[in-house]
Amino acid sequence: MKHKKALMILERICKQIGTITKGAKIHNQYCGAFNAAVLKDNYEAVETIRRYFPIAIATRHNDNSISQTIAKYRGEFILKLLEDLYVDKESNSSLMNLAPDTEGNNVLHLAGLLAPIEKLNVVPGAALQMQKEVQWFQKIKKFMLPSKVEETNNKGQTPIMVFREEHKDLRKEGEEWMKKTSDSYTITAALITTIVFAAAITVPGGNDQTTGKPIYTTNASFIVFAISDAISLFTSTTSLLLFLSILTARYHEDDFLSKVPNRLILGLVMLFLSVTSMMVAFGAILYIMFGRGKQWILILIIVLACIPIVSYVILQYPLLSELVSSTYGHGIYKKTHYYRYRKKKYVVSSEAVVT
């Protein structure tokens, strides 16, 4: 309710300012609020002011245009707002390909600078922070002319050179985090592989002395054991190889975009399937050996087997959720309320709009 009332007050203020006839006087009234909204990435305030004062899009902050301010301060939703407003129009490209700043930096140079600390801290972990920075750089790059992508600033640096220089420490931290995480999971996957392989060659109940086949071949519990043990062996081996591939990755900046996160996501999923099927196989062995005809033992086995499975989900789900959301979500636009906001229709009288 407070949020809606604030927007209503903003619209009333814009209407009142619209009664001022002198252009310079109007600009002085809204430019400070417009710049503050851009810096805070408040797309609703920017959209409201822009609807009443279309020329506000040309407002500058510290001698930077709106596109330069967006690139430097990571105005994700303001960028999306401009993209929606000027899609398939020449102004969409011109907004991002304006003259460089006093240091010769174009918009892509500014996008290559390290994000402000408050923007970085929104994302947990150096690897995901690096991924978000690469996503932002690639997003801005789509708006740039080919000549601007290779343009140099006063220091002779191209945008990608600026990005690598600014993010070398963050890239190193992200690499270390990924390797430490993968190293821990590698040990777990290796232990599971060893256990389930030993269980596969040590058949419960022994073998028939005549045929050499397992005694419980026709037993339903034995079939469950054989299938789940095989699944656990294959999935744990797969996860082990995935985690090893993370340890040996080259960690180029583009690797943080999807390659390394995809391997970690798939490795975590495979490890979960391995743990789950291992518990099923172990439970089937216990039931074959001690639980035949005893319902309470079966219930006890199920309850105890669920403990490590649930623990894995509770402990590892936050990491997996962040990885999936950051890699397969809306990219840099994660907040769905932006899309709900853009579906709203606004009716503004011609008297209220000051051109």
Short descriptors:
single chain, disordered C terminus, 355 residues, elongated, mainly alpha, 3 domains, 16 helices
List the helices and strands and how they pair.
Elements: H1 2-17, H2 23-39, H3 43-52, H4 66-73, H5 76-85, H6 90-96, H7 107-111, H8 117-120, H9 126-141, H10 146-149, H11 159-166, H12 168-201, H13 220-247, H14 259-290, H15 295-328, H16 337-342
How would you summarize what this structure contains?
Helix content is 67%, strand content 0%. By secondary structure, it is an all-alpha fold.
Notes on the structure:
By secondary structure, the chain is an all-alpha fold. The chain has 3 domains: 1-59, no CATH class; 63-153 and 160-166; 176-328, no CATH class. The chain has 16 helices and no strands. Helix 2 packs antiparallel against helix 3 (43-52), helix 9 crosses helix 12 (168-201) and helix 12 runs parallel beside helix 14. It is elongated.
Report the major sheet. Answer: none
Number of helices: 16
Q: Globular, elongated, flat, extended or rod-shaped: what is the shape?
A: elongated
The structural class is mainly alpha
Question: What is the terminal-to-terminal distance?
Answer: 31 Å
Q: How much helix is in the residues?
A: 55-70%
